[in-house]
Amino acid sequence: MAAETHLHSDLHAQSLEHDAHAHHDHHDDHEHNESFISKYVFSMDHKVIARQFLITAVIMACLAMIMSIVFRLQLAWPGEKFAFINWVMGDKWGKDGILDQNAYLALVTIHGTIMVFMVLTGGLSGTFSNLLIPYQIGARDMASGFMNMLSYWFFFLSSLVMTISLFVESGPASGGWTVYPPLSALEKAMPGSGVGMTLWLVSMSFFIVSSLLGGLNYIITVLNFRTKGLKMTRLPLTVWAFFVTAILGVLSFPVLFSAALLLIFDRSFGTSFYLSDIYIGGEALTQTGGSPVLFEHLFWFLGHPEVYIIILPALGLTSEIISVNARKPIFGYRAMITSILAIGFLSFIVWGHHMYVTGMNPFLGSVFVFTTLLIAIPSAVKAFNYITTLWKGNIQFTPAMLFAIGLVSTFITGGVTGIILADSALDINLHDTYFVVAHFHIVMGVSAILGMLAGVYHWFPKLFLRKMNKNLGYLHFWLTFISAYGVFFPMHFLGLAGVPRRYYENSAFPMFDNLQDLNVLITVFAILGALAQGIFLFNFFYSIFRGPKSEQNPWNANTLEWTTPMANIHGNWPGPLPEVHRWPYDYSKPGTEEDFIPQTVPLKEGEVDGGGH
Amino acid sequence: MSLLVYIILILAAAAIWQLVRVVELSGKLKGVDPNRVTESDNRMQGRLMILMYFGLLIFCLWNFFAYKDKLLPVSASEHGVELDWLMEFNMYIIAVVAIVTNFLLFYMAYKYYGRDGARATFYPHNNKLEMIWTGIPAVVLFIIIFFGITLWNDATSPAAKGTRVVELYSMQFNWKARYGGEDNTLGKSNYLLIDGVNELGVDSTDKNAADDVIVKDTLVLPVGEEVDFRFRSRDVIHSAYFPHFRAQMNCVPGMETYFHFKPTITTAKMREITKNPEFNYVLLCNKICGAAHYNMQMPIKIVEKAEYQKWMEATKASGSNGNPYYAKK
Questions:
Q1: Domain boundaries, chain B
Q2: If DSSP codes are grouped into helix, strand and coil, which group holds residue B315?
Q3: How far is CA A227 from the centre of its chain?
Q4: Quick one: closest CA in A to B278, which residue?
Q5: Which CATH number is correct for B164-318, 2.40.30.20, 2.60.40.420, 2.60.120.1440, 2.60.120.260?
Q6: Residues 137..166 of A with a Cβ closer than 8 Å to B: which?
Q7: For residues A521 and B63, is the Cβ–Cβ distance under 8 A?
Q8: Smallest Cα–Cα separation from B235: which of A300, A287, A271, A178?
């Protein structure tokens, strides 16, 4: 069976090579005929699409970051007047520089939505799955360039609709990024649940389409388009991570779509999937028999795999970057693959840990405690393997490497607090407090952002053929890393003191008075962190146009993307596709001159592949 | 003022950029690629890594010591004491894990910074090591799971028969409490019966409703007696959060949810414990529910049993009972 598949993929690779040869012959005049629109706008080239995803995500991330600064100002100095708030929010939502209550909820909602979906799902997977899957498996492009193009444009549409929703009169969706009905279903419950919420649902539907088109493409490409010799057990961990991520997305996003669809029905067509026995605005609604808990189940059936959809690609990028820059093979390659698979599988049976206090049967709660805590095992294996990869390395501290190490740190620090929250008994008192906000921001928000930035620094030469400035990268890392901990570590204490999340201000409760200086501290770090991103933006855009040209293999890495010249070649390799003879982690292997052996170098006689497995 | 801030920011950005340019140009003059990572970069970054670790450790410890007394006071409920113990137990474990593994991470980064001409050790895997760090976390997690599930089952098992029944009714943006009355049974309710007077939609034809007592200002409970809470919501999901009692349950429209606990410390006693004469227990809303979510609260007063009975009689007599169908005996 295995041999058969192998044979099949070999044949496939050969026939592809054949096609590409024919393609290549007249690809020069082909390129001349390409218009600007088909080359840079509606492009089917995975490299262009990766850049489109990245730049869209960078813009959306800036939007979400500015939002976070506005609500952080409000939380640190409630009632204080800020010209900045008035400037961003206008006279309607930031009258005299004081943030409106509904606008506050809108900001936290859209900040969460943009970060989770547009930046860390679309931006992260969209950029790096697109860039690296074809490059690292030695393929000319994705299985379906057309579907890939559609995937980006649905993503663009989704981002556009989400941005437009900020400008409707009643405001954007404001019920939290989890949009629990009935709050999100009834316009009478809050103004944001009107047109804003409709646009949110439209935007998410586009997003789900984009994600499915992309995900199916990634899966098919990885399974069928690997070049000759590239067995699954020779895949870089990046590709493994993108592959499992895509499977998670394909299995879980349709469930979110069903949740959204039923919500649309409840909102617009009078059904009662989620609504029952509601009296609001002086009126009893006719809907009975539904349950909001159903929505919570459907939402979190996506929502939990979603956090792994976010973190797995970041961990994949990190695996590669740490190995390359430690000049060592990634420790426990097969254990890393097993961990990815285990995390992927477990991620589907843990969603109930978001629902311990929703009224769900307590027995179900104990089942989810068990499955959830199991995830800590493969996660711990990954963390220890990263540390062991550094041990006795010859670590090259490129900016990418700093971000990758930063990710491992935040993944550990944020991961351990998950052990507290996974424990249903302890979640009783911490549910929906700032402890939760601290936990998921560190383990998934900060970690994934650090991973994404690591990826940008590391693969910038492949994305834009130039290099980013090293010293600005260092400065960017340290300011970002310090302020990330400065923002999110103190939040644990707010949570332990019982401060609920999504409160416009805490002054209604005297019990929180002595914690206000903590909120000020957090906001100061948040502003510092935001300014640090200014350094990145400058470095990023400046380097795209004026950065120094990169050599072909700037980091002395083994993977296939560095075996092709620094040019945007249609079909990725000017000649035939590279052939793979070894796993991707032969760094500092004894008995060789250089401290790296690219995957295309044949095994010497008697040489064992894959680190002696 | 704001203009000044903007100018400072712009100047700072320009200064940083100029600095980078200078470094870059001087590198160019010397004929080295300024973006190439050198041994001195590696040494510098490695040192910053270990420095970061200790900085982080100091910051975290400072956070802990500065705020540990400003967190929630001792649990005022019976099961809460157990939960606090479990919390402390788990906190010790995760603190040790986070401190040790972060140390290893940053220390490796510091110790093995890249030197010119040095070579890393080819060390692709070690099954024994991997078994160790699969096995140890597994054992520790099973211990955590065991205690966690045990306490969870204790806290969420159904309340004993005859426990005092209190309904907490939530709506945008306030709470109401309904006591079961003499028969300790809540009258039926129906959302279609809600109007300006009958705010909870109590069904007046149900005889159990006649002795129900509804209060809107303060939830008063006797110390040392279990309370069987029932939660309902009128409009959107709310969450009844009692941080001092380590208790929380969502209030979901269309269904009834449950939680029970036993308050063990009176308000007066807690004022002594916290050395705060103004201390009050409070019920918060902890599920986003709309614009005034941040101010949806109800004070809670835990009193001695005798005082509770006196208060209950007074509430019934004074007409401050919010039950429109209340039948005086």
A1: 39-113+127-157, 164-318
A2: helix
A3: 27
A4: A510
A5: 2.60.40.420
A6: none
A7: no
A8: A287
Instruction: Describe the crossing of helices A195-224 and A237-268 by its angle, rounded to 10 degrees.
Output: 150
Q: What is the pLDDT of residues A369-387, one digit of tens each?
A: 999 999 999 999 999 999 9
What is the token pair recorded at B189?
A: 């309710």
Retrieve residue A170's tokens.
Answer: 């009643």
Q: Give the residue among B121, B130, B133, B108 at the shortest CA–CA distance from A611.
A: B121
Cβ partners under 8 Å of residue B272, min gap 6: none
Distance from the Cα of A29 to chain B's closest Cα (Å) equals 36
| Three-class secondary structure assignment of A187-217 | CCCCHHHCHHHHHHHHHHHHHHHHHHHHHHH
Residues 6+ apart with CB under 8 A from A286: A270
Tell me which chain B residue has its CA closest to the CA of residue A282: B195
Measured distance CA(B239)–CA(B35) in Å, rounded: 54
Q: Which of B104, B152, B197, B271 to mutate to test the interface with A (most CBs of A within 10 A)?
A: B152
Q: What φ, ψ does residue A441 adopt, rounded to 5°?
A: -65, -40
Residues 364-383 of A with CB under 8 A from B: 365-366, 369-370, 373-374, 376-377, 380-381, 383
Domain ranges of chain A: 557-563+570-613
Residue A14, pLDDT > 60, answer no
User: Which tokens sit at A271?
Assistant: 């059904």
DSSP state of B261: E
Q: Which residue has the tokens 């059936």?
A: A301
Average pLDDT, chain A: 92
ipTM of the complex: 0.94
Q: Which residue has the tokens 């220890």?
A: A384
**Cβ of B148 and A369 within 8 Å?**
yes
For chain B, the residue count is 329
In this structure, which long-range contacts are made by residues A82-89, counting pairs with CB atoms below 8 Å and at least 24 apart in sequence? A83/B1, A83/B2, A84/B2
Token pair belonging to A538: 């400058």
**Tokens at residue A258, please?**
């069903």
Name residues whose C-beta falls within 8 Å of residue B243's C-beta, 6 or more positions apart in sequence.
A429, A497, A498, A511, B72, B284
Q: How far is the first Cα of chain B from the last one, in angstroms, to the nearest whole number?
A: 69
Q: Which residues contact B56 (CB under 8 A, 6 or more apart)?
A: A485, B102
How many CB atoms lie under 10 A from the CB of residue A217?
24
Predicted confidence (pLDDT) per residue in B250-298, tens digit: 999 999 999 999 999 999 999 999 999 999 999 999 999 999 999 999 9
